[in-house]
Amino acid sequence: MTWLTWRIERVKVLVGAALVLIAAAVLLTLNVNGPVTMTGARVALTLGPPAFAVVVAVFWGAPLVAREYEQRTHLVLWSQDRPATRWLALRVAHLLLPVVVLMFVVNVVARLTLDRMRGTAIQAMPDYDLWLPLQLATVIAGFALGVLVGVLTRNVVLSMGITLVAYAALRLYVGVIARPHLLPPLRLLDKVRPLDVMFVAGGYLDRDGNELAASAVQSVCVGEHPVIAAQDQCLVAHGIVRSFVDIQPASRLTDLRLVEFGGYAVLAIALLAAAWLVLRRRETTR
Predict the structure, then answer these.
(1) Could you give the maximum distance between any two Cα atoms of the chain, in Å?
(2) Which residues is 251 bridged to in the sheet?
(3) Percent of the chain beyond pLDDT 70?
(4) Closest-CA residue to 256 (of 132, 138, 129)
(5) What does the mean pLDDT of the chain come to?
(6) pLDDT value at position 2?
(7) By the 8 A CB rule, do 245 and 188 touch?
(8) What Å distances lie between residue 254 and 123, 133, 202, 258, CA to CA?
């Protein structure tokens, strides 16, 4: 990071580093042997890395270009000798270094905490989201989204708000809706869902193989027949012959991570390229 970039961005870098170190100190000294502290550690590992990515997207990426437009410092910073596109490329490169370093620290702390949780008698949480390349791709994609939104809006507060909403929606959509379907799921018939798998969907099949939602079927039979044997007879009487569970087995989790990593990586490159092209177009029309 150059001296000028450090002078401008040092506050956000130091604040981000301080927050990461405080969180690391709390997690690494937390006693995870009890159910209450285990729950706290689970919440921290679930929300901590995404929260760091949100901070980078909203407070690092969104104001990067928007601040220069809002304060009109772009009139001094950008000229024929120092074009805006070159300025953007250098500033992004300089800021991505501390982002990667801090994300690496977050990942190491999360891994150490997870290992401590697995050493207890209480069941630990899965580690799908703690794969370092995927975490780096998500945080860089958020940073790139903030940069593009700042370029388009040229307003700091507006760009931060739009980035927060858009990035949160993106992470929720990918993590909850899209992730189980990144690869074709495996269907199990008349079996209980195994442990250590990613659940995709479940329900029942009629004689023609049509899928029926579990909630609809249970509302017909379970409420009317408390005895399990009677429930089975009710299901057959309504033409429901089999149950199914769609899963992503543990053997596919690495492939799912690679697909998701590739998606975030392509998105980050596309967003940064779009921001660069918008600035270049403004330069040519100025």
Answers:
(1) 82
(2) none
(3) 85
(4) 129
(5) 84
(6) 61
(7) yes
(8) 21, 12, 23, 6
- In our burial notation (b when 16+ CB lie closer than 10 A, e otherwise), range 213-244 reads ebeebeebbbeeeeeeeebeebbeeeebeebb
Helix (H, G, I), strand (E, B) or coil at 194: coil
Distance CA 188, CA 193 (A): 8
What are 222-241's pLDDT values in tens digits? 655 555 555 666 766 767 77
Q: Is the pLDDT of residue 121 over 50?
A: no
pLDDT tens per residue across span 124-150: 456 788 899 999 999 999 999 999 999
Please give the backbone phi and psi of residue 265, each rounded to the nearest 5 degrees, phi first.
-65, -45
The domain limits of the chain are: 3-183+253-285, 198-248
Q: At what angle do helices 84-118 and 132-153 cross, to 10 degrees?
A: 150
Q: Which DSSP category does 181 fall into?
A: G
- The dihedral formed by the CA atoms of 225, 226, 227 and 230, expressed in degrees to the nearest 10: 10
Contact status, residue 44 vs residue 23, Cβ threshold 8 Å: yes
Long-range own/partner contacts, residues 45-51 (CB < 8 A, 24 or more apart)? 45/110, 45/113, 45/114, 45/125, 45/130, 46/125, 46/129, 48/23, 48/106, 48/110, 49/103, 49/106, 49/107, 49/110, 49/129, 49/130, 49/135, 50/129, 50/138, 50/171
Mean pLDDT throughout 250-270?
Answer: 94
For residues 141 and 264, the answer to whether their CB atoms sit within 8 Å is yes
What count of residues does the chain have? Answer: 286
Q: State the burial class of residue 168 (Cβ atoms within 10 Å of its Cβ: 0-12, 13-18, 19+).
A: middle
- Residue 271, amino acid: L
Q: What is the pLDDT of residues 165-204, one digit of tens each?
A: 999 999 999 988 999 999 999 988 877 777 778 888 887 8
Residue 194 tokens, joined = 């195994």
